[in-house]
User: Which sequence fits this backbone?
């Protein structure tokens, strides 16, 4: 990052801390819908751009928080590598900082790891305007690793991400997508059955009677797995999985409009079908998207909890985005907030009220 860009952010944070004034951290603003709305002056991180270090042979990339995901992925593509957690872009302006702050992962997550699993280190401006470094830039360096992972998914409530180091993985040599016609219950049974076999699965998605299955790996392995999955081949597999990752698929269109709310439910993969509305299932059965009328109640939260998981009001509707944590967990959040941001200036209330 340029010194001028970092100095400007540091000065803004210190001034806000002195005035006890809230700041709304913003990169590409492609995930503005996620979590509660925040108040305060915008702290724009888009000036913190560029790949700081990339060693393909070490499988590590380090980039500034405002760097576009598209630019990072293009550089990695040239070297036959990828961000294995397949971060959602949602729009062309998606940044690395936003991807890590949100902690969201795409279709490949169950098979290659979540965003926090691949974060090696971060640099963060804390509530005092001091830059802190956690973790490292090599896979063997685990010093402070838990703190670096803690920043992943914190939605900017603990500090301003300025630089991130991530583990890279080789891109699969071959990918193919199969489409199987089946109902929801059958799709859940099938993906769990296949998940227990040595098949090169890298993504699954069921919606409206069609189960899409992506196979990734060496050409012989993909070819051998295709007849086991059955169904028909989908030539436009790359475009299809991008539409699921970025929520441009027809299922997601119109969510968040008047009368509609999109729920994201993380549950055990064997959970039965949920009868709340139009459904799309990812992650081998473990991620359920439900589009529900806005006048519907919070029944999805209770259902997800009964299935060993949780539900998030992802887009649209009113009410808290995230389920309220219990007293113990809330206490942990409060102590972390007091440690990194004692004046509470960063993204107030975006994660939970009062934080």
Assistant:
């Amino acid at each position: 990052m340029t010194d001028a860009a970092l100095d400007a952010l540091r000065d803004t944070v210190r001034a806000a801390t002195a005035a006890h004034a809230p700041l709304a951290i913003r990169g590409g603003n492609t995930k503005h819908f996620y979590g509660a709305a925040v108040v305060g002056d915008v702290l724009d991180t888009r000036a913190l751009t560029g790949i700081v270090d990339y060693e393909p042979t070490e499988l590590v990339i380090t980039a500034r928080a405002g760097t576009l995901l598209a630019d990072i992925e293009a550089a990695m593509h040239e070297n036959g590598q990828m961000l294995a957690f397949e971060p959602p872009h949602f729009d062309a302006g998606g940044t690395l900082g936003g991807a890590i702050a949100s902690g969201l992962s795409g279709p490949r997550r169950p098979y290659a790891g979540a965003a926090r699993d691949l974060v090696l280190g971060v640099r963060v401006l804390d509530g005092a305007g001091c830059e802190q470094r956690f973790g490292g830039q090599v896979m063997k360096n685990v010093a402070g690793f838990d703190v670096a992972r803690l920043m992943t998914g914190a939605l900017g409530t603990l500090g301003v991400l300025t630089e991130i180091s991530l583990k890279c993985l080789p891109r699969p040599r071959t990918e193919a997508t199969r489409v199987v016609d089946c109902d929801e219950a059958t799709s859940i049974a099938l993906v769990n059955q296949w998940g227990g076999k040595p098949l090169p699965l890298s993504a699954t998605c069921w919606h409206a009677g069609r189960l899409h299955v992506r196979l990734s790996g060496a050409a012989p392995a993909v070819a051998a797995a295709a007849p086991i999955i059955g169904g028909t081949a989908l030539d436009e597999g790359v475009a299809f999985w991008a539409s699921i990752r970025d929520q441009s698929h027809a299922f997601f269109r119109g969510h968040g409009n008047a009368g509609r709310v999109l729920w994201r439910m993380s549950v055990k993969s064997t959970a039965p079908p949920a009868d709340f509305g139009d459904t799309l299932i990812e992650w081998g059965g473990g991620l359920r998207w439900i589009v529900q009328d806005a006048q519907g109640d919070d029944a999805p939260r209770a259902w997800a909890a009964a299935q060993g998981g949780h539900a998030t009001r992802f887009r649209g509707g009113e009410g808290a985005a995230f389920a309220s944590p219990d007293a113990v967990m809330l206490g942990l959040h409060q102590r972390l907030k007091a440690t990194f941001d004692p004046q509470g200036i960063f993204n107030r209330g975006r994660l939970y009220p009062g934080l």
